[in-house]
């Protein structure tokens, strides 16, 4: 079973700045990597799939990169609604595995 | 637009069967190449994909739960159901249904429903 490791666990960033979140897979998942945003009390929202493709309706401030085992989610010009939990998930190998998440908080 | 809504008991006794339903609105379950999934998140733990059922009816279960889980389709009601047998406190979690796309992970999620297993 693939292990997905997200870092950091908590990231403190000031509004208006950029946040960089990392996700590492224990073995290659090619580009079969998704990122989700979860706000308190809400369902996860798909942001990125295929490691770098924005889902429908996701603004360009969200960008994903990487392949194989190392992936990055970058969020630019942070606004209040961006402070949330972010999960990565691989869908290359069954069972599909989520990381434990990165909490993006206001500095 | 497509919406998913979970329903079922919020409290289940240990050793009994947990049964949940996910009602899909806005699209037929059998239209399009989607896999309809159940995902859970125990308190303080990671999201876990329990399994999925393809629009054709074929299923795939997480090996960690395979012996206790059944996912099925009711196309007449446009619903997906989940049954987890012999539950324990470790099965206490928020259970969500989600639509999976072969090349794009889980693009639509239900709000989730909390299920507590009591002794």
Briefly say what this structure is:
The complex is a heterodimer of chains A (107) and B (119). Chain A has 107 residues and is an all-beta fold.
Question: How would you describe what is shown here?
Answer:
The complex is a heterodimer of chains A (107) and B (119). With 107 residues, chain A is mostly beta strands. Chain A is built from no helices and eleven strands. In chain A, the strands form two sheets. In chain A, strands 2, 4, 5, 6, 9, 10 and 11 form a seven-stranded mixed beta sheet that branches. Chain A is globular, with a radius of gyration of 13 Å. The model of chain A has no long low-confidence stretch (mean pLDDT 96). Chain B is globular and about 40 Å long. Chain B starts with a strand and ends with a strand. In chain B, a hairpin with a 3-residue loop joins β9 and β10. With 119 residues, chain B is mainly β. In chain B, the strands form two sheets. In chain B, strands 2, 4, 5, 6, 9, 10 and 11 form a seven-stranded mixed beta sheet that branches. In chain B, strands 1-3-8-7 form a four-stranded antiparallel beta sheet, with no helix packed on it. The model of chain B has no long low-confidence stretch (mean pLDDT 94). In chain B, 0% of the residues lie in helices and 55% in strands. The relative contact order of chain B is 0.32. Chain B contains no helices and eleven strands. Chains A and B meet through β5 and β10 of A and β9 and β10 of B.
Structure characteristics:
heterodimer, A: 107 residues, mainly beta, 4-stranded antiparallel beta sheet, B: 119 residues, 7-stranded mixed beta sheet, 55% strand
What layout of secondary structure does this protein have?
The complex is a heterodimer of chains A (107) and B (119).
Chain A: E1 4-7, E2 10-13, E3 19-25, E4 33-38, E5 45-49, E6 53-54, E7 62-67, E8 70-75, E9 85-90, E10 97-98, E11 102-106
Parallel strand pairs in A: 2-11
Antiparallel strand pairs in A: 1-3, 3-8, 4-5, 4-9, 5-6, 7-8, 9-10, 9-11
Chain B: E1 3-7, E2 11-13, E3 18-25, E4 34-41, E5 48-54, E6 59-61, E7 69-74, E8 79-84, E9 93-101, E10 105-109, E11 113-118
Parallel strand pairs in B: 2-11
Antiparallel strand pairs in B: 1-3, 3-8, 4-5, 4-9, 5-6, 7-8, 9-10, 9-11
């Amino acid at each position: 079973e693939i292990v997905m490791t997200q870092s950091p666990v908590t990231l403190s960033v000031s509004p208006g700045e950029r946040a960089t979140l990392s996700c590492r897979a224990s073995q290659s998942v090619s580009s079969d990597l998704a990122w989700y945003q979860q706000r308190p009390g809400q369902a996860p929202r798909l942001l990125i799939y295929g490691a770098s493709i924005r889902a429908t309706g996701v603004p360009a401030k969200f960008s994903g990169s990487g392949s194989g085992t190392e992936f990055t989610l970058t969020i630019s010009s942070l606004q209040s609604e961006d402070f949330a939990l972010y999960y990565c998930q691989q869908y290359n190998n069954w069972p599909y595995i989520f990381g434990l998440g990165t909490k993006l908080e206001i500095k | 637009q497509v919406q998913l809504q979970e329903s079922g008991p919020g409290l289940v006794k240990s050793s009994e069967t947990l049964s949940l339903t996910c009602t899909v609105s806005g699209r037929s379950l059998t239209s399009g190449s989607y896999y309809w999934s159940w995902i859970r998140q125990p308190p303080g733990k990671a999201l876990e994909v329990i399994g999925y059922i393809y629009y054709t009816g074929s299923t795939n279960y997480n090996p960690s739960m395979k012996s206790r889980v059944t996912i099925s389709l009711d196309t007449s009601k446009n619903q997906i159901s989940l049954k987890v047998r012999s539950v324990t406190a470790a099965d206490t979690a928020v259970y969500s249904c989600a639509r999976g796309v072969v090349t794009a992970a889980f693009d639509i999620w239900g709000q989730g429903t909390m299920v507590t297993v009591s002794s």
